[in-house]
Automatic annotation (TrEMBL), chain A:
PANTHER family: ACYL-COA DEHYDROGENASE, ACYL-COA DEHYDROGENASE FADE28. The lineage of its organism: Bacteria, Pseudomonadati, Pseudomonadota, Alphaproteobacteria, Sphingomonadales. It comes from Rhizorhabdus dicambivorans. Residues 213-325 form the Acyl-CoA dehydrogenase/oxidase C-terminal domain. Belongs to the acyl-CoA dehydrogenase family. One of its GO terms (molecular function) is flavin adenine dinucleotide binding. It comes from the Bacteria. SUPFAM superfamilies: Acyl-CoA dehydrogenase C-terminal domain-like, Acyl-CoA dehydrogenase NM domain-like. This is Acyl-CoA dehydrogenase.
UniProtKB/TrEMBL annotation, chain B:
Its cofactor is FAD. Residues 123-212 form the Acyl-CoA oxidase/dehydrogenase middle domain. It comes from Rhizorhabdus dicambivorans. Residues 229-384 form the Acyl-CoA dehydrogenase/oxidase C-terminal domain. One of its GO terms (cellular component) is plasma membrane. InterPro entries: Acyl-CoA_Oxase/DH_mid-dom, Acyl-CoA_Oxase/DH_mid-dom_sf, AcylCo_DH-like_C, AcylCo_DH/oxidase_C, AcylCoA_DH/ox_N, AcylCoA_DH/ox_N_sf, AcylCoA_DH/oxidase_NM_dom_sf, Mycobact_Acyl-CoA_DH. Residues 6-119 form the Acyl-CoA dehydrogenase/oxidase N-terminal domain. Keywords: FAD, Flavoprotein, Oxidoreductase. PANTHER family: ACYL-COA DEHYDROGENASE, ACYL-COA DEHYDROGENASE FADE29. It comes from the Bacteria. This is Acyl-CoA dehydrogenase.
Amino acid sequence: MVAAHALIFCGALDAMDLLLTDEQEGLQSTFAKGIAKELPLERLHGAQGQAADNASLRTFADLGWLRMSMPEEWGGLGLGYAEEVLLFRELGRNLGPLSVLAGVLAARLAASSGKLELAESILDGEEIGIVVPEGDAGAASGGAGRARLFSTGDCRKGVLVLPDGASLLDLTALDGAAAPCLDGTLKMCSFELGDARPVGHTEGGDLWWQGSLLTASMFVGQAEGARNMILEYAKVRQTFGRPIGAYQAVRHPIAEMTARAEHARCQTYYAALALGMGRADAAMQVAAARTLAQDAARKNADANIQLHGAVGITSELSAHLFLKRGIVLSNLFGRKKAALRQILNDDLMEV
Amino acid sequence: MDLVYTPEQIEFRRKARDWLKENVPGTRPSSREEAAAYDKAWQRRLHDGGWAGLNWPKEYGGAALTGIQSLIWFEECERANAPAYGLMSIAQTHAGPTLIARASEDLKAFHLPRILRGESLWCQGFSEPGAGSDLASLKTKGVIDGDHIVVTGQKIWTTGASTADYQELLVRTDPDSERHRGLTWIICDMRSPGITIRPIETMMGESAINEVFYDEVRIPISNVVGDINGGWSVAMSTLAFERGTTFLRDQISLSAKVERAIDLARRTPLADGRFAIEDSAIAEKLAELKAEGLGHRAMAVANVSNVDRTGSPGPEGSMVKLLVGGTYKALGEVVTEILGLGMLDYDHSRASNPWAYDFMNSWVVTIAGGTSEIQKEIIADRVLELPRAR
Ligand SMILES: Cc1cc2nc3c(=O)[nH]c(=O)nc-3n(C[C@H](O)[C@H](O)[C@H](O)COP(=O)(O)OP(=O)(O)OC[C@H]3O[C@@H](n4cnc5c(N)ncnc54)[C@H](O)[C@@H]3O)c2cc1C
């Protein structure tokens, strides 16, 4: 049958292409292996999780993963968003530390605002947190209002990214007490933005769209991770003398999880390329990736818990972690509402 | 990964755009016979312009386009508002490819040029009243009598049977056989004595689908494609082509429909006097559908790239069909909300209210060509290798 199809589709390979190149395949498998080894989901059960994530940030820095998209003079490889989405997809799959995202954005901010030492220290693995303003992101531009800091361990700096500019904040002086967080694998502090000291700033929306894109990739990884978890279980858990994966009430939702994750993955790759090219529709493409990926991650987290039965709601199983981390991510870089507004108001690009 | 078109692709797009600008005909008539003539004439024009058999190989008169070129072509067709294949679809997208892959040289030499030139319309006689999703349970009987197969039985849901010249017909030639063994794939001349066609009206008010009755219809054995009793594997390649790129144009049209719905929401006031787009629930739903459409396109790019690289369509076609069906239905729901009573202005023809037509037709999208449930089964089996219930 393959030969028959080959007869029909006899074209050569074109440039327009969403498949990975050999180099990208190589990178992806390096990321996948490294992250699966450093950050197995089980680490998140119990106290050792944070220590593992702190150590892994250094490891990733040593491997050059944080600087891979930096230019050569920074020891980087000059790679682009297309490669970054591969890294963040793998991080999402294993609920990797948010400080990798913060680090990539903060290093870019520090480098482009001339804070070279700071940039070096971030690229070497200094932990940076992510700052999310409460309420409207616009109001935070003036540096007012309350915000939350999400991090793995204790960190002294946070990156605040808004649609029209980004700041690196020194938080040493804050008494921002850690508050318990729904996602217990993260540290969350609440503080007054006016009390933080800015140590770097850039104008423009670049980091906002990069952050949205990388968030979309993490959502894609989560959607796939949740699907993989239930897929394995469906093959081994038996009821009424059969594996549950033989029942359509189980098979069909897993098939839907798969289609959803693929849909979001293709759109995220497309958006990465559009953003890298600076295409006129890049913001809309990223917003669409974000929307599809967030939906896929949430629905897949839901199905993963449901199809596990009672064990699905226990803290021993990792299923709940996909749901909880998804709720954290859905607050980064504006909420879904803002992405939808962007999609609705932007025009499709003429090709 | 790369989104940059090569100079050749850009040139190809320009050529397609220019040709379509000169050649797109007027509106397709609604009566069945006139529509059939229109579809044939359009195919003839495509043929004369070098656009027939888009991904068929050159040796059979095809245009041998790559997957990406096909995508570009369909995008340009959408932009130019060019007719879809219409009743030509079966001939072009699965009968032709199945013949190329499996038929004798004589059958190829006779049929392929006729299909390309728009001289023959085809229909697909697979489904029966007792065999739809479960195609292997079909019963229509084919008895071998000398150099003929004599067919008796019934098919149903046959799109375009009354206007078709030929049919992809699947019959049981071994009466003692079970399931997929003992079936034969044969070309049936629709003008053969013994065939009776009865149209079935759809909920859109059309009669494009039919029941077809066979009363000792004699078909030459030389019309068999593949082997006698070996029809199942031929049918499976037909279905693989059907799920391959057949729906590409529909996928692209869907995005254009979402844009039209957004435009509709900007122009249509709700009961409270605000425009529908000012209603946040409607606006957000439309934005979600637009995002889905962008995702479908990205998936199409990935899928055609994959076909170009590996030479065969994978089970991804089932994922796209499943997702596109969902978007179609959701689009109908939101338009119903926007139009209110206006959704009811429908005189049982597509032209009177394309929104109402498309909403009713969204169930065709999720049933015909393999239901959404069957697509999920295919994903579960072939992508996920889940244990089987059967
Ligand atoms: C507009 C239109 C045009 C068509 N044109 C043609 C044509 O030209 N030629 C042709 O041969 N056929 C044609 N068909 C038929 C089409 O292929 C069948 O309708 C389809 O395959 C479903 O079969 P069925 O209608 O017998 O439904 P059934 O198979 O009876 O299914 C009934 C319901 O059960 C579900 N179901 C069935 N089996 C399973 C299962 N294993 N697991 C889970 N759920 C299941 C189905 O999804 C469906 O919801 C057309 C159909 C339509 C609507």
